[in-house]
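Example 3.
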Amino acid sequence: MKKRLFVLVFPALLAGLASPSVLSTAQSGDLTVKDSLDRTVVIPAKVKRIVSIQSEITRLIVALGAGDDLVGIDYTMRLHDHLFKHIYPEESRLPLVSMAENNVNLETVVSLKPDIIFASPFERQIVDAIQRKTRIPVVALASLGDVSKLADEMRLVGRILGRERRAEELSAYFTGAVGLVRERLKDVPRDKRPRVYMSFWGFLTRTPIHYDPVEIAAGLNLAEKIIPDVLGSVGTMVKIEQIILWDPDLILVHGNYLPKERTVTVESVLKDSRLASLSSVRSKRVFYTFGFWNWWDIAEVLLETEYLAHLFHPDRFPEFDLGRRGDAIYKKFYGLDDGFAKLSAILRCDEWVHD
Amino acid sequence: MTKKQRALGLLIVLFPFVAFFVSLSIGVVHIPLDGVLKSLLSPIFPSLKQGLPENYLGIVLGVRLPRLLLALLAGAGLSVSGASLQALSKNPLVNEYILGISSGAAFGASLSIVIFRQSFPPQISAFVFAVAAVMIVLLISRNSDSPIVSLLLTGIIVSAFFSALLSLVEFFASPYALQGLFYWLMGNLGWPGWGALSISLPLTAVGTAGLILMRWRMNVLSMSDEEARSLGVNIRREKLMVIFLATLVTAAVTSVAGIIGWVGLIVPHLVRMMVGVDNRRVVPLSAAMGAGYLILADDLARGLASSFEIPVGIFTSLIGIPFFILLLRKSKRIWL
Amino acid sequence: MSIWVKDLRFDYRNFSLHIQNLRFEAAKLTSIVGPNGAGKTTLLKCLCAILPIARDSLFLDRRDIALLSAEERARLIAYVPQEHSSAFNYAVQDFVLMGRAAYVSLFSTPSAADVEIALEALEYVGLRRYAARPYFELSSGERRLVLIARALAQKSDILILDEPTSFLDPKHETELMDLARRLAVEKKKTVLVTLHNLDMAVKYSDVIVFMKKGGVVAGGSPDDILTEPLLESVYEIKMNILRHDGRKFIVK
C-alpha cells in the first residue's frame, strides 16, 4: 500500500516545500545548503563526482556543462526520457543506479564514490535513508512547476558544482525570456485571458491545480487551486461535469507522452461525445502542450511558455515559430543544433498547431 | 416467503430504478427532476428542448446516462457473480477477490494497458488472466479434506501471486504509465468512452443474465458435490459454466471500471438478510440491489466534493463495510 | 427396478472393493451390513455414480449405469446421505425441491408441479407443517426425514440410504426404518440401506447382505443366512443368536 501511495504523490508534486538556498560557506570551502525539504546539507567544496536520481537536476547538470562529472544514471533518464541520449550521448556508459523511484541500488551508488547525490523531495524518509546509509550528502530539489524556482534551482546547482558563470548565464537567459513574455502580456485584461483546462497525466479529468507557463502566457487555469494546498499536490481529478460547466475557451492536452502511448489525444477530446457541447471543442480549440515529463526540463519550460503565449495571444507573438525557437533554445541550453528537431520528431510537434 | 420478505423484495426491485432516476439529477450541476425527464425524452420529443438550459442535454445524456448505465450494470454484474460464486463454492465469504478473479483481471488489464499499449484489448487480457487465476485456485483447492479452508487459502495465495505480477508490471512501467494504472486500479466509473463500453456492457449483461437464469441451479450447486451429483447435476460442466459467466462479468467490469471492491460480498449478504437464502430470490435481487448500491456509491463520488473527484471504489468500501458491520451486529440470528 | 452388480471393482490406495454378481430386487428392503471399512458406503457411492465406475459393472434392469447421464441416473436412483451440512440454511420446502434438479433444465426454475411433488414428499414423511422452517432449525431426526423427502421428490425407483439411523434415539430410529419399509412395500421401491444395528437389519430387511474387506460374504433373507458362525467370521467377535416370538435377536 505504501508503494501505491507513493505513486499517487509522485507527479503530484508536494506543495509547501521550502525554497532551497545557500546558507553559508565555511572556511574550508564547504557549502551549507538548505534543500526543498528544508534539510540542511553540508557539501564539499569540490564536487567532482555526481549521482543524480532527479531527472530535472540531471538535465540542469548537463546544461551546466557538468555532464562528464556524472558517475551514475537513474532509470528514468535511461529508460523513459525522450531526449537525454541526444543531449548527453555519453549517458550510455554510465552505470544504472536505480530501477524505480524508491528502488535505488545503494551499493552501486557507494561504489561510484560520488561527492553528492541529487534526489527528488517526494518522500523525506527515502532521501534521509539514502544519506544515512551511504554517508554521502543528499540534496533534494524540485521546482514544483514554479518557473522562478526553476531559475533559482539552476543557480543553486551551479553554485554547488562550481559552475556559477554558466548557471548565471543560463538563468539570466531563461528569466529574461520569461520576463519578455510577461512584459508583452502584462496589460492583457482578465476577460481577454483564455480560460484554460489542461488534461494531464493521461486522463481527461486529471489536471494540475497550478501551472506557471499558462499563467505567464496570460491564460487562466480553470482548476487553479481547486483543492487546498495543504493536501500537498499540484494535480487532481476533476469531474467531467465540472469541465462542461467551466466551458473552457481552450483545452490543453499533455503532449509529452509518446504519440503511441497517449491515452488522451486532441482527436479523442474532439470526438468525446460528452464534451461535444463545449465551445472549445466545437471551435477545435484543443491543443497539445508539453507538460511535465519526469519533472521538468528547463529548456522545454521556456519553449512551452512562449508557445502558450503564442497560442493564447497570437496577435502579440506573430513572429513565433515553434521549430525555429525550439532549435534556438535547445542550442542555448544543450549546445545541440537539432535537439528540438529530435524532440519534435518524437512527439510529432509539427502536427500540434492545427486550425 | 413471509409477507415482510415479499415487501422487502419489492423495495429492492424498485431501488435501482429510483436511484437511477434521482441520480440523473445529482452532480456538479443540480438538474431538477423535471429537467432530467425532459432531457431524457427530448430525443423522442424535440419540442421538450425548449426552455432547457443549454448544457442539460449534454450532461444528462452525454455524461450521466452512460455513467449510470455502467454503474447499473457493473453493480448488478459484480453482485450477481458474487452471489453465484458464494453458492458455487458453498462459502458465503467468497467473492471475486478471494477466488483471485479480480487480481487476475487487474493483472491482465494492466498488462494490456502498460505493456501492449492497448493494441491488445484490456477486456480480453483481463478475462484470460481472470480465468487463469480462478482455474488455478480451483485446481489447487480441489480434493482437499477441508475444501472451504483450502479454497480461501489458495485464493489468497493466488491473489497474492497475481498482485506480485501486477507489481512487476508496475515496476517496469514508466512513471507516467503507472499514473494511469494506479487510478484505474482504484476503481472509477467515469473514464471509459462508448468504445470500451460497447464491448464491456454487452459482456456484462450477457454474463449477468446467464447467471440469473441459473439462479435455482445455484441452490443445487450449493449442496456438497456428492449430493449435487446424486441429485442429477453434471457438476463439472455446471460449475465451469458458473465460473465462466462470473469471471466474464468480473473481467468485463474490471477492464472498464478498475477494481470496485466489496460489492460482490456485501450486496448478496444484504439481500439474504432481507429475503432469505433461496437463490431464486437472492441472485436476481442481488442484481437490483447491487445496481442501486453502486449508483448510490457513485453519487457520492460524483456529488460529494465540489469539483474534484474521488474514485468510487473508495466509497463502495467506505460505506459498505461499516454498514455491513452494523447489520452483522444488529441481526441477532444468523441469516444464512 | 432391480440392480445387478455384475462385476464391480473400485480401488482406493489401501482398500479395494470387488463384488461379482449381486442383485438387489425391486419392492424389497435390502440391508447392507458389515464392520467398519467393509466397503458398504463405497458400494453405495458406486451405485449412485458419486464415485466413478467402469462400464459393464453395474446395471439397472438392462441399463449400464456408467452410460447414464447425470439426469437419467438421478431419475432412477436417489441417494440419501448420512448428513447434510451447508453454509446456507434453506427452507425445508426449498431444500426438498432440490430433488427435482434432474427434471428442471439448467436455465429454468421448478414449476408449480415440481413444488407440488416436493410438498407431497414432505407430506409422505410427515413434515409438511415444517415446509417453511429453515432446515437447520429441525432436530437431527427430522433432518433425516427431510433428506428422505428430497430423495422421494426425485421420483426414482431406487432409494439408497447411507446409515440412516446413526445417531438417532430408538424412537426416531424405529420411525425411520418404518418409513423405509413403507417405501419398499407401498411405493414398490428398491430400497438399499446400510446399517450398523444388526437387530434393525434383521427386523426390517427382506434381504441382508454381509460385507467384509471389500467383498460380499453372504446375502439372503435373515431367516436363511443369519448364523452364529457367519456373524463371528464377519465381525470377529463372539455373538449369539436368540429366538423369541419367531424372530432372531443378536446378543454380543
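The first helix of chain A runs from residue 2 to 9. The mean pLDDT of chain A is 88.
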